[in-house]
Amino acid sequence: MIGIIGGTGIAGLLKNGEEKIVKNKYGEAKVLIDENNGVVLLSRHGLNHSTPPHKINYLANMYALKQLDVKRILSLNAVGSLKVEIEPSSFLVANDFIEFTKVRKSTFYEGEDGKVAHVNMLDPFCSDLRGILKGILDKRQYGYNEGTYVCTEGPRFETIAEINMYKHWGHVVGMTAYPEVSLAKELEMCYCSLCNISNYCSGIKDSDLTVDEVLDTVKSMEAKIVNVVDDFINYKFGERTCPCKDVMKNAFI
């Protein structure tokens, strides 16, 4: 099974998608499942975008994908650019991350059952999936960069002072890729992130950042995003050979 995490704009890809509530010990996740094509769609904010980034039940969502036998995940992330040369309406393939979250649960191993794990994050975004994603973007001739995703708590936008700090460390800022990326690793699922650049971050350009600007840009990129997702779903995947599938073997104390 392939997992697609994103917004409601891609739901139309599943012509025969069946809505399902997947319950587990962390909560429940609402998904759309296309059994024939082996695809699970998960809208992290809910169908009406009613769940803010810091309130998303990441553990329930990721565990639900594992329960559904998902092996590979494509995450769609709207982000702000920290670099003038990384322009809105382009894409970025995340290859690393720095996180500044505060209240999110970010591991399945809290120690209650006697297990403590230190997962290896040498390659947080699966290198095999990144290669496939870049190949799709190249074939489509969609402009993209690679770089580091800085994850903030949200739901507010960042201050100019924060952006001045982040721009020395990363390429884009978003609010949702973490802890998805680390939880996927703990569940030994391959995870990659296609970031669509919706805006420049505060202070990068001389303009006020508004929600309307973000939504308008995301809407304008929707057709391209759907094309990439469609190509990813129809890619002929073979057996997994990347480290993701065995990363927890040496993670436990």
UniProtKB/TrEMBL annotation:
Its EC number is 2.4.2.1. Coiled coil: none annotated. HAMAP family: MTAP. CDD domains: MTAP_SsMTAPII_like_MTIP. One of its GO terms (biological process) is L-methionine salvage from methylthioadenosine. The record marks 158, 211 as: Important for substrate specificity. It catalyses: a purine D-ribonucleoside + phosphate = a purine nucleobase + alpha-D-ribose 1-phosphate. Gene3D superfamilies: Nucleoside phosphorylase domain. Substrate binds at residue 175. Pathway: Purine metabolism; purine nucleoside salvage. InterPro entries: MTAP, Nucleoside_phosphorylase_d, Nucleoside_phosphorylase_sf. Purine nucleoside phosphorylase involved in purine salvage. Phosphate binds at residues 8, 44-45, 176. Homohexamer. Dimer of a homotrimer. Residues 2-233 form the Nucleoside phosphorylase domain. Pfam families: PNP_UDP_1. It comes from Methanococcus voltae. Belongs to the PNP/MTAP phosphorylase family. MTAP subfamily. The keyword Transmembrane does not apply. This is Purine nucleoside phosphorylase. It comes from the Archaea. GO terms for cellular component: cytosol. Keywords: Glycosyltransferase, Purine salvage, Transferase. GO terms for molecular function: S-methyl-5-thioadenosine phosphorylase activity. Although this enzyme belongs to the family of MTA phosphorylases based on sequence homology, it lacks several conserved amino acids in the substrate binding pocket that confer specificity towards MTA.
